[in-house]
Amino acid sequence: MMEHYFEKTGDKFYAGEKCDDIKPEFHYQVGATPENIEIARDHTKHREHLELSEDNMPVSPMKPIFDAKWRFMWKIGERPADSPDDFPQVVPAEFPEW
Fold it and tell me: 98, 64 in Cβ contact below 8 A?
């Protein structure tokens, strides 16, 4: 089901069609997130100041690159009533069994 979902959503997204499951207005914290949106924090400067032995140093000093995979965020559990980020739950319209 997930493979079918991402294939269908990706086809719509790359064709320039509107995808209701992609929610940048909620910082991609619910629904689908396309590839090359997220990037890890850059800790290359922090690495220079680590007091670690050579065996324990991070393997790659490279700066992070954009994540090349899609993902789907699903809310789990109830949010507190006073939570400022009560984002909607996204259920794909084409997958009622979701």
Answer: no
At 22, the pLDDT band (50, 70, 90 cuts) reads: very high
Partners of 71 in the beta sheet?
Answer: 33
- State the amino acid at position 77 in one-letter form: G
pTM over 0.85: no
For residues 40, 62, 47, 57, the Cα torsion angle rounded to the nearest 10 degrees is: 110
Question: What does the domain layout of the chain look like in residue ranges?
Answer: 1-40+62-98
List, as one string, the DSSP characters of 3-57.
HHHHHHHHHHHHTT---TTB-GGGTTSSEEE-TTS-B----HHHHHT----GGGS
**Averaged pLDDT of the chain:** 86
Give residue 80's pLDDT band: very low, low, confident or very high (50, 70, 90).
confident
